[in-house]
Structure formats: structure tokens, C-alpha cells
DNA sequence: GTCGTGACTTGCTTCGAACTGT
DNA sequence: ACAGTTCGAAGCAAGTCACGAC
């Protein structure tokens, strides 16, 4: 049974008893509601400008990414960013000046022209080296490492824009810098920080302590027993990433990944049995140890911001990760995710309640059965969406609805249907609901909560954990994104006999909530984390899973591993870049394509790009780029234009290394539009190759790596002394750059234009007031009375000091409004949340907050604090 | 090596409550 | 009190990637 000392859900405990005052969350984005002329269905048509040219600002100009910039690191990142920032954000929010919308102001071309790009003056993948192509990359890299200095890489002197920022090794020949990487360890990498200087094998031997660890141990558990984050092998081995967890074994035979350090200590063997996650933990803990001096220092500083410390404590305290001393039994199979699992299954949406409102067919009311009416209502309520403009949507709806109507039904075509009565009925119902008193609303909410309470929690190995999506999806019309061929199809009602339950062997099987029906199947599979699933009614070969919530330890554990893997890439990235640069001119076309694809994934943070079926929207990623998605522009630019995930448009023109440019020309030769650019490549080949370079490396790791390293660099470069608000501006700016790198877009709020004009009006009004005040001041100084106000009233005769004060206040107000307006415009198509939730290592944020005395709740909202509980006790000196 | 399946992460929109300014 | 706005949470679609069968 769960160990439970409180009735309260543990997740919220940290908030409910907040005695430190209210937690205020703010964000400077515009409303996400109401999409300007578009919604999901038209996402491909929107926001294309976001990407346009902005990548360059943040990534394309990064010298480290150029052919030779392998050893370049964080500072270069930031430097490049700053240069671009100057270009792209001539009126940056940091500067507080009016800043027009990104896309309008920054034609990609301009940015490219301004970018400082290091070029290969000579290709370093000589034909003579082709003999190496048959050797494993890692082996080749060894050669490469020795040859790196000889590699005929040269750096074109960086352009003047960033010359004043040039950092120490900018002038060091690239070859020399490369050497650092090739020699191996992080000591040579500028990405490195001290806590990464030991190879995994070494670090794990260290004492498991670190200041954080000791703090954890001292803390008694007050609520539930929590699962430790790096809880021995049971949990870790449970994480289904065998390639990662068992990396030692898997890589030791033939294909040895590049090593961040050349020398492997004897102890390594001993660690082979230790799960990767655990080793990673030790790795970071060892860093805590090393930094203990600093910790003390920071702790001292911390006294001045007790409240902040309390927040961190509260979250790490409440975190399952920091409390438990419980060791889960070892699974032995390396796959076990849990030992005991208890939950109550899922809750179903209420049955359909017919409203009896008659729709019209050829102007006449039609009687429908409840089933037919239900589907008609689904269609009626979509009247205001863009789906109604899509023939495919209507066609699919009609096909499915007609099946319900039957061939001989009076309704014979959709065009003659008028759903207005139903639509209006729905609107009035909505309105009624809106008009309910707050007491009524509260009562309803409580009733619902009471009904759902038992489904909200699961007990995993004795720990009460929140369940994520315990509600079965209600029936509806499928809202595929982009030009999805199945949009409009009926998503039928899911019944208990569609649902497979996964639960512990000894746990009671959840009672089926619908009398007379039963579950499809009961499983006791502890190698997976799902609690239930059903087949997607739209695409039966896909599944809909019920998982634990993001705040659960299982999710937290895998989150942490994800970031550790990305951090690990930091130690390998130099060699990896050297390797793919070498292969840009390989004779082996597959290798050449792998090299170019990896380059694009690294440089542009593209997704891998799996193959897609015909019954899905036509979107692409790196491996599935089509000929027409990339347009070469002589001498060495590539113009990208494609629909990516969720049919979000990716538009970007970038300057690339000449060998890459030439390779793209070669890949396009003799192909037609519609043909694959990388015809020899797919994601499995690419990932198999990446795994040779670093254990567990896949294409998506590059995205996490690039996002997190960018945040880390920018925060550390740009944070200046100042008040919290200014620091938050820095954070949001970095967050925005990451969102741009990852092409995280959102649709423009429907009310955006109206909001902007309202703000403009207000600013104009204030400006008029300001002018009046200035005139009055002028007159007062000359001994004249103030002019009458615009409405003809006589104004009070103020003294010059009072007028000056008023002028200052008004000016400040105008400036603030202008700042808000600029921020709103600036972020109207940029979604900051996605990167925060998925790509930015929370420890970067937490450590930065600690270092700069920024309350963490200014950056993370309640759910993020819960999700990232595992990161709360990070060393303030943590660097990604 | 390819393909299909399964499990999980990522990503955008929507909903509705809370907040803010008047 | 009200309207407009912000924001967290939920919803669910759409990706990635591993693995096993053939």
C-alpha cells in the first residue's frame, strides 16, 4: 500500500501551504486563444516568417557550427547570437526600444549576409582518406583526431560585426582547436564544465554525496515515500533505452563510439554493471562535490533571499526524488519499470444526451436518431473553424455520417443540410453555462472532482503518483493538422471493451465503470509505463495510452536521462562535427548523405524525419526532405521550405559550407520534384550511424543539446546585475531564441490586431497628455497659467516640480506600454512553452535562478515546478 | 535490411479560471 | 461589476525511436 501521511496530493503540497506569499507567474506572450484566421487546420499557412531568417540570428552564425568550428563553444554561441541580435533585433526588448515584428524586419538574406561564417578553404575529406571509409567511424576518428591538425581547415577571419567580441580562440587555427576535442576529454572542450571532466566510468566510483546528496539524506520524509530519481538499477534498468543503459556492453565489441577521453581507467569494467542513469548521477554528484566551495558561498548569499531558498527546498523536498531512501528491488531483466502498480482504470465520458433540436434539410426539419444527431452536432459546432473550408473535412464527415444515416435516409447530400438550429442551440447552451453563478460553477466543479478523484492517482511501488490522462477521449470528428487526409472522420465512442488495462499482478482489477461491460484485456506488464490503452479509432494500428503525469518519478527519471544524454553530446560534438565534415566529400554516397544530414540536424536543429504513410499529412523532416524543399542559391546558400511536424512551415535560408552546398547539388542531380533528397538514407540508418559516434545518440538529441546549450550560453553571457525584472527579460529572450531555433510557432491570436490598436491608442492618448504637460510646464516657468484641457475645463495651476514629476510618470508609463507592445508583437508567433517543457534542461534554469537570486517561480509555473522537482536541488554552479 | 508494431516524447490548440484595469 | 486579457491545464495529434519478425 501507499505510504501516505497526508490526504493532500503530494504534488500540490508544495503550493497549498505556501506561506511565502503568492506565487506570481507572468509571461510576456500574447494570448494563445483565438487564432487569427487560422487554427490547427491552417497551421501550415501561418507563422512561416518566424523561422525565416531567424535561425541565422541564433544558430546559423555560430562559428562553432561551421566546418571548422568544432572546438568553439559557448562563448562563440553567444557571440554569434549577439551579432545577430544586433541585426535581427535591432530593437531588442532588452534595449527597451520599439521593436517591430521579427519576420517583417529581418529578411533572411540580410541575416545571411551579416553572418560570420567560417568556411572550409579546402575540403578536409580527401579522397585519399576514403580507404578509411570502410572502418568504423570511431576508428576513423582516431585517425582523424591525429590528423585534425593537419586537416586543411582554415578559418576565414570573422566579419567585423563580432570581431569585438572575439574570444580567445577565435584566432587560433581551427586545426589547433580541433585537437582539443580529439584529445578527448572535456577539459579541452569549451562546452565542458568541471563536473563533466571525468569519463562516466571514472566518476561513478566517487562517493555518492555532494552537498545535494547529503541534504537529501538529512531530510525526513514527511509525506509519501518517494522513489529516488536515480534509484539503483530497478528504475534505471527499467528505463527502456537499452542502447543507452547497456552502452558499455553494446559498444565494446565492434563499433566503439568516439570517446570524450582517450584513456579508459581500469575501474571502467566495474561500472559496466552500473546503469547509465546511475553513473550519470554520480557524474553530476561528483560535480557537486567539486563545487562545494562555491556552494557554501552561494548558500551564504542565499541567506539574503530566504524565500527563494524555501521555494527550492519546498520543491526538492516534495520531490519524490530527493526524499526516498527506498531501493527498488532489482529487476534482473533490465526492463522493469515498476514492481507494484495499483490504479483505478479510466473514466468514460458521459453518454450522449439527445437535445432533439432539428436540423434542416432543403429547408425542412429532419428527425434524427440520437446517434445521427450526436454526429450532426459534432459537425454543427465546428461551424466557426477553418475545417469548414476544407473539402476533405466535409467529404470525410459525410462518408461517415452517411453510414449512420443509411442509404435511404431523406438526407442525400451535405450541401443541402443546414445545421444552424443545432449550432444555435449549442451556442445558447454555452452561454447558459457561462451565465451560471460562481457558486453553481463551483458546485459543478466539485461534483466532477469527486467523481474523478479515484482515477487521478496511481500507486507505483508504494508511491502515490498522479495519473496524466485518465479520461477516455470522447467521440468527435478527427481534427488532423495540416492537410490530413483523414480530417473530419468520425472518432467513434470508446467503450470498456476497447480498453486494455495494465496493472500489478496483486492489485485489484479496476471495476468497469459502465455496468454490464468489461475491459478488453488485463495485463500485468511491468516493462512498460502505461496504465491503459485503446486503439485509435481513426488509425487502428496506433494506440492511445494512459500514462502517469509529467510530475511522476517515472517521467522525471526519463527526463533527467534525456538531458544527461544531451549533456554527454557536449563531450562528443567536436569529434562528431569533425567526422561529418570529413565525410562531406566522401565517395560513398550513403556516408556522404549521412554526413550532410547530420550537419543539417546539428546546424538547423531539424527533426530526424521518419517515413510517413499516405494516410497522414504530408510533412517532412531531415531524412525525408524532398528535392523541392531545398533550393540552392549560389555560391553557398540553401533555401529551406517545407512543412515540418504539425504542418508547421519551416522557411529559412542559410549559408552552408561549400562542400555541403556541392553535395546538395549532387544529391539533387537527375531527380524530380517529389524525389527524396537523401535517397540513400532513412532515420534508422542515420541513428545507427549516430550510435557509432556516441552511445545512445539519436537525431533528436541534437535538438535537446542545441536548445539547452543555447540557453545556458545566453543566460551566462547576458545576465547582468540588475533587478529581477531585467533578469527575467534576459531569460525570456534566451527562451525565445531557443524557440526560434526549434521553430516552435503558434498561431497569431485572433484579437492580436485589436489588442495592438488598443495599445497604440492608449499610447497616443498618453503622448497627448505628455505634450500638454510639457506645454503647461513651459507656461508655468514663464509665469503663465496652464491652457484649458481638451474638454475645455480649467486645469489646476501646478508648480513646475509637480509638473515635472507628472511628466516623468507619464513618460515611464508610455515606455512601459511600448515595451509591452513590442514584446507582444515580437512573440505573437513564437511559442516559448514547448522548449521550456521539452528541451531546456531545468537545471540550467534552477542554477541560474540560484546564482542570480531570481525566484524560480518567476520562470517555472506550478506544473513545471512539479515536473522538474528532480532538478530543484541542483548545484548553483551547474552548467549544461 | 525492411517492415510493422509498440511505447514514449513532443507540440499546438482549446478551455476556462484567474487576474487586471476601468 | 464587468470586459478584456493572461495563463495554466487539458486535450489530443504527430512526431521519434526501439525492437522483433521475416
TrEMBL record:
InterPro entries per record: DNA_brk_join_enz, DNA_topo_DNA_db_N_dom1, DNA_topo_DNA_db_N_dom2, TopoI, TopoI_C_dom, TopoI_cat_a-hlx-sub_euk, TopoI_cat_a/b-sub_euk, TopoI_cat_euk
A GO biological process held by the record: DNA replication
Top-rank lineage group of the source organism: Eukaryota
Chain coiled-coil ranges: 426-454
SMART domains: TOPEUc (SM00435)
Annotated segments matching region Disordered: 1-52, 87-236, 251-276, 777-802
Catalytic residues of the enzyme: 839
Biased composition (Polar residues): 27-52, 182-191
Comp. bias intervals (Acidic residues): 162-172, 264-274
Presence of the UniProt keyword Cell membrane in the record: no
Keyword Coiled coil: yes
Function field: Releases the supercoiling and torsional tension of DNA introduced during the DNA replication and transcription by transiently cleaving and rejoining one strand of the DNA duplex. Introduces a single-strand break via transesterification at the specific target site 5'-[CT]CCTTp site in duplex DNA. The scissile phosphodiester is attacked by the catalytic tyrosine of the enzyme, resulting in the formation of a DNA-(3'-phosphotyrosyl)-enzyme intermediate and the expulsion of a 5'-OH DNA strand. The free DNA strand then undergoes passage around the unbroken strand thus removing DNA supercoils.
Protein name (database record): DNA topoisomerase I
Amino acid at each position: 500500500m501507499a505510504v501516505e501521511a497526508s490526504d493532500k496530493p503530494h504534488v500540490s503540497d508544495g503550493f497549498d501551504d505556501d506561506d511565502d506569499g503568492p506565487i506570481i507567474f507572468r509571461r510576456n506572450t500574447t494570448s494563445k486563444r483565438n487564432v487569427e484566421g487560422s487554427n490547427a487546420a491552417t497551421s501550415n499557412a501561418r507563422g512561416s516568417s518566424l523561422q525565416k531568417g531567424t535561425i541565422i540570428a541564433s544558430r546559423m552564425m555560430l562559428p562553432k557550427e561551421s566546418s571548422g568550428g568544432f572546438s568553439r563553444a559557448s562563448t562563440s554561441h553567444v557571440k554569434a547570437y549577439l551579432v545577430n541580435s544586433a541585426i535581427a533585433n535591432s530593437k531588442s526588448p532588452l534595449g527597451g526600444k520599439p521593436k517591430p515584428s521579427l519576420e517583417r524586419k529581418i529578411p533572411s538574406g540580410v541575416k545571411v549576409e551579416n553572418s560570420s561564417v567560417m568556411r572550409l578553404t579546402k575540403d578536409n575529406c580527401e579522397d585519399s582518406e576514403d580507404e578509411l571509409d570502410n572502418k568504423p567511424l570511431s576508428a576513423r576518428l582516431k585517425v582523424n583526431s591525429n590528423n585534425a591538425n593537419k586537416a586543411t581547415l582554415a578559418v576565414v577571419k570573422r566579419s567585423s560585426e563580432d570581431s569585438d567580441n572575439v574570444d580567445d580562440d577565435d584566432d587560433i587555427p581551427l586545426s589547433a582547436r580541433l585537437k582539443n576535442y580529439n584529445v578527448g576529454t572535456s577539459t579541452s572542450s569549451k562546452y565542458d564544465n568541471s563536473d563533466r571532466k571525468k569519463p562516466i566510468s571514472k566518476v561513478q566510483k566517487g562517493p555518492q554525496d555532494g552537498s545535494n546528496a547529503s541534504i537529501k539524506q538529512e531530510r525526513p520524509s514527511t509525506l509519501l515515500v518517494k522513489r529516488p530519481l536515480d534509484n539503483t538499477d530497478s528504475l534505471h534498468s527499467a528505463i527502456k533505452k537499452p542502447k543507452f543503459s547497456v552502452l558499455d556492453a553494446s559498444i565494446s565489441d565492434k563499433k566503439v563510439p568516439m570517446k570524450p577521453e582517450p584513456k579508459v581507467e581500469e575501474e571502467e569494467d566495474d561500472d559496466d554493471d552500473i546503469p547509465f542513469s546511475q553513473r550519470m548521477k554520480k557524474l553530476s554528484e561528483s560535480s557537486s562535490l567539486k563545487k562545494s566551495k562555491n556552494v557554501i558561498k552561494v548558500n551564504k548569499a542565499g541567506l539574503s533571499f530566504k524565500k527563494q531558498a524555501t521555494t527550492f527546498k519546498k520543491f526538492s523536498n516534495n520531490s519524490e526524488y530527493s526524499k526516498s531512501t527506498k531501493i527498488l528491488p532489482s529487476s534482473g531483466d533490465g526492463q522493469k519499470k515498476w514492481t507494484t502498480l495499483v490504479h483505478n482504470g479510466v473514466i468514460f465520458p458521459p453518454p450522449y444526451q439527445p437535445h432533439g433540436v432539428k436540423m434542416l434539410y432543403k429547408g425542412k426539419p429532419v428527425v434524427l436518431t440520437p446517434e445521427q444527431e450526436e454526429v450532426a452536432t459534432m459537425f454543427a459546432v465546428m461551424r466557426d473553424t477553418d475545417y469548414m473550408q476544407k473539402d476533405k473535412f466535409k467529404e470525410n464527415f459525410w462518408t461517415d455520417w452517411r453510414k449512420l444515416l443509411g442509404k435511404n435516409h431523406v438526407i442525400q447530400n451535405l450541401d443541402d443540410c443546414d445545421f444552424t438550429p443545432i449550432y444555435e442551440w449549442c451556442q445558447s447552451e454555452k452561454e447558459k453555462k457561462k451565465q451560471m453563478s460562481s457558486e453553481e460553477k463551483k458546485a459543478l466543479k466539485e461534483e466532477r472532482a469527486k467523481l474523478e478523484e479515484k482515477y487521478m492517482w496511481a500507486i507505483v511501488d508504494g508511491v502515490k503518483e498522479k495519473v496524466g490522462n485518465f479520461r477516455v477521449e470522447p467521440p468527435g470528428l478527427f481534427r488532423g493538422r495540416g492537410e490530413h487526409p483523414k480530417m473530419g472522420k468520425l472518432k467513434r465512442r470508446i467503450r470498456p471493451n476497447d480498453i486494455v488495462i495494465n496493472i500489478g499482478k496483486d492489485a485489484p482489477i479496476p471495476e468497469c465503470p459502465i455496468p454490464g461491460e468489461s475491459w478488453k484485456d488485463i495485463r500485468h506488464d511491468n516493462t512498460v509505463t502505461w496504465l491503459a490503452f485503446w486503439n485509435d479509432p481513426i488509425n487502428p494500428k496506433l494506440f492511445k495510452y494512459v500514462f502517469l503525469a509529467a510530475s511522476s518519478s517515472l517521467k522525471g527519471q526519463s527526463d533527467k536521462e534525456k538531458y544527461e544524454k544531451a549533456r554527454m553530446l557536449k563531450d562528443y560534438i567536436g569529434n562528431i562535427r569533425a567526422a561529418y565534415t570529413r565525410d562531406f566529400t566522401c565517395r560513398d554516397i550513403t556516408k556522404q548523405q549521412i554526413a550532410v544530414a547530420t550537419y543539417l540536424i546539428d546546424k538547423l536543429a531539424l527533426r530526424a524525419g521518419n517515413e510517413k504513410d499516405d494516410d497522414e499529412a504530408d510533412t517532412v523532416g531531415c531524412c525525408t526532405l524532398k528535392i523541392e524543399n531545398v533550393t540552392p542559391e549560389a555560391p553557398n546558400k540553401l533555401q529551406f521550405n517545407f512543412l515540418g511536424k504539425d504542418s508547421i512551415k519551416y522557411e529559412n535560408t542559410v549559408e552552408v559550407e561549400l562542400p555541403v552546398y556541392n553535395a546538395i547539388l549532387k544529391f539533387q542531380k537527375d531527380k524530380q520534384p517529389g524525389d527524396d533528397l537523401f535517397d540513400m538514407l532513412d532515420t534508422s540508418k542515420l541513428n545507427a550511424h549516430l550510435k557509432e559516434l556516441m552511445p545512445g545518440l539519436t537525431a533528436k538529441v541534437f535538438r535537446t543539446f542545441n536548445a539547452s546549450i543555447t540557453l545556458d550560453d545566453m543566460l551566462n553571457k547576458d545576465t547582468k546585475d540588475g533587478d529581477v525584472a531585467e533578469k527575467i527579460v534576459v531569460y525570456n529572450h534566451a527562451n525565445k531564441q531557443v524557440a526560434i531555433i526549434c521553430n516552435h510557432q503558434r498561431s497569431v491570436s485572433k484579437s492580436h490586431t485589436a489588442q495592438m490598436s488598443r495599445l497604440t491608442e492608449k499610447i497616443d492618448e498618453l503622448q497627448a497628455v505628455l505634450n500638454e504637460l510639457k506645454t503647461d510646464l513651459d507656461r508655468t516657468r514663464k509665469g503663465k497659467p496652464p491652457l484649458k484641457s481638451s474638454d475645455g475645463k480649467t486645469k489646476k495651476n501646478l508648480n513646475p516640480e509637480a509638473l515635472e514629476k507628472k511628466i516623468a510618470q507619464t513618460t515611464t508609463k508610455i515606455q512601459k506600454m511600448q515595451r509591452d507592445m513590442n514584446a507582444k508583437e515580437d512573440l505573437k508567433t513564437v511559442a516559448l512553452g514547448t522548449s521550456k517543457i521539452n528541451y531546456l534542461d531545468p537545471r540550467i534554469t534552477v542554477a541560474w535562478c540560484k546564482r542570480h537570486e531570481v525566484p524560480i517561480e518567476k520562470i517555472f509555473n506550478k506544473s513545471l515546478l512539479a515536473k522538474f522537482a528532480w532538478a530543484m536541488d541542483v548545484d548553483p554552479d551547474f552548467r549544461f
